[in-house]
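Supplementary Methods. Inverse-folding protocol.

Structures were first reduced to a discrete structure-token string of length 458. This string, shown here, constituted the complete conditioning input.
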């Protein structure tokens, strides 16, 4: 597949890296000489310096033969025009653009992105995606990952195993015997920084991080099995009233059981604006690193503080200060991946990397076959993929016991006619099944082949 990536920042770099690793023909365009030099030296891609919306540059990049253009520069307008040029002059089949300015995405202008206007097939708004991701983490305190699959009937959950976990050293195969009515499949374990797919006789140990697929209605029960019995957060302090903070507050206050929200924002005008837009929240104008402001926001009685400013250091420090003042749990937005491995040792309970959220959303539309959902794990070490079984899918009619799945692959759940089925040896796949699969990076191509749409389907 030939792909043009517009933008060599963190998201563009990671998309290009993963596509190149899987032997796609990738060209990256960016106006920064430094970023172009870095990506050209680091990856097996063609790197071109210039504006991504320049028709001559797109022609040099091979747009006439491209299967897809992914526009993720810092400029919404450049991203949109690059897609327009790719469509109008080069007839590129698939166009993906990152759009940050929410004015473009208002329901009033819902016809803006279409073949007759701006022909963009997939519009990605990182701030909205990150806010939703944060809201899901607040549903299950203690989870560092919480992603929906199969129309949110299945959740991928990531947790750390603590000393209070009651099933430490218990073989995973025994979980089914101990909890026969619990719909859960442990997909992967991280131990000593190594990610692996566990065998039935493997067990979880204190200090492990694990990922499991679970029926959404069983999330809280599954958390309790691993020692997390806290209820959903109902008192939340948000540090940072930017797009992410405001969207998060909006998500939390619109549910059936609204959450008590207090938002700390440094800018006076922005604080007033948020107060008007989110009337169910309390907005405090001040510094998230000021102990008195944090006390005024009630961190000593709050269950969770979520720090989502544009400054990683502010997010980390305000989280640590809030923990000292008595907040039960902290979540920090971290843009620089260098900080990621340090978060747990520093005392930040959960961190969110918006880059990973954006990359996962984009990869969902790149993967071949009937891919309905995707989430990237640990910077691309593995992916959780939701795929639809068609008439020509090799899995149809076979049961798990008789199949030879590729190494590094595990079936997490099957959704059939709206019902969640946790896979066992005798589970047989049927046409129309939505199958949630965990795959290590080197097995992803084989998973794509399993769900490829063959010609006889048409």
């Amino acid at each position: 597949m030939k792909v043009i990536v517009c933008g060599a920042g963190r998201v563009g770099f990671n998309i290009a890296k993963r596509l190149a690793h899987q032997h796609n023909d990738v060209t990256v365009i960016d106006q920064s000489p430094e970023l172009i030099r870095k990506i050209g030296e680091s990856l097996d891609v063609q790197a071109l310096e210039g504006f991504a919306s320049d028709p001559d540059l797109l022609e040099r990049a091979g747009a006439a033969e491209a299967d897809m253009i992914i526009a993720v520069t810092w400029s919404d307008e450049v991203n949109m025009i690059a897609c327009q040029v790719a469509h109008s002059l080069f007839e590129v089949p698939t166009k993906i653009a990152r759009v940050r300015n929410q004015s473009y995405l208002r329901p009033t202008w819902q016809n803006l992105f279409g073949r007759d206007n701006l022909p963009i097939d997939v519009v990605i708004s990182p701030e909205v995606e990150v806010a939703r991701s944060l809201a899901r983490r607040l549903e299950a305190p203690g989870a560092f990952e919480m992603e929906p699959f199969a129309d949110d009937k299945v959740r991928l959950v990531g947790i750390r195993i603590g000393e209070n976990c009651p099933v430490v050293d218990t073989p995973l195969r025994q979980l089914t015997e101990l909890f026969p009515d619990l719909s859960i499949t442990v997909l992967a374990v991280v131990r000593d920084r190594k990610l692996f797919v566990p065998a039935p006789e493997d067990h979880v140990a204190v200090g492990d991080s694990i990922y499991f697929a679970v029926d959404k209605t069983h999330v809280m029960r599954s958390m309790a099995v691993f020692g997390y019995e806290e209820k959903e957060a109902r008192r939340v302090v948000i540090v940072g009233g930017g797009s992410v903070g405001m969207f998060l507050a909006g998500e939390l206050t619109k549910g059936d059981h609204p959450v008590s929200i207090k938002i700390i924002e440094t800018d006076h005008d922005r604080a007033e604006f948020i107060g008007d837009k989110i009337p169910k929240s309390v907005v405090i104008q001040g510094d998230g690193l000021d102990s008195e402001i944090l006390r005024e926001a009630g961190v000593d009685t709050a269950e969770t503080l979520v720090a989502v400013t544009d400054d990683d250091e502010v997010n980390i420090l305000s989280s640590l200060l809030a923990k000292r003042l008595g907040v039960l749990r902290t979540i920090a937005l971290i843009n620089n991946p260098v900080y990621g491995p340090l978060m747990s040792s520093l005392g930040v309970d959960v961190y969110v990397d918006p880059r990973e959220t954006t990359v996962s959303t984009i990869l969902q539309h790149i993967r071949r076959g009937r891919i309905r959902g995707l989430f990237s794990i640990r910077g691309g070490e593995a992916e959780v993929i939701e795929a639809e079984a068609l008439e020509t899918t090799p899995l149809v009619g076979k049961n798990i016991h008789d199949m030879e799945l590729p190494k590094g692959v595990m079936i997490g759940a099957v959704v059939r006619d709206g019902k969640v089925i946790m896979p066992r040896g005798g589970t047989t796949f049927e046409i129309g099944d939505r199958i949630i699969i965990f795959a290590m990076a080197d097995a992803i191509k084989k998973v794509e082949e399993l769900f490829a749409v063959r010609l006889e389907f048409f």
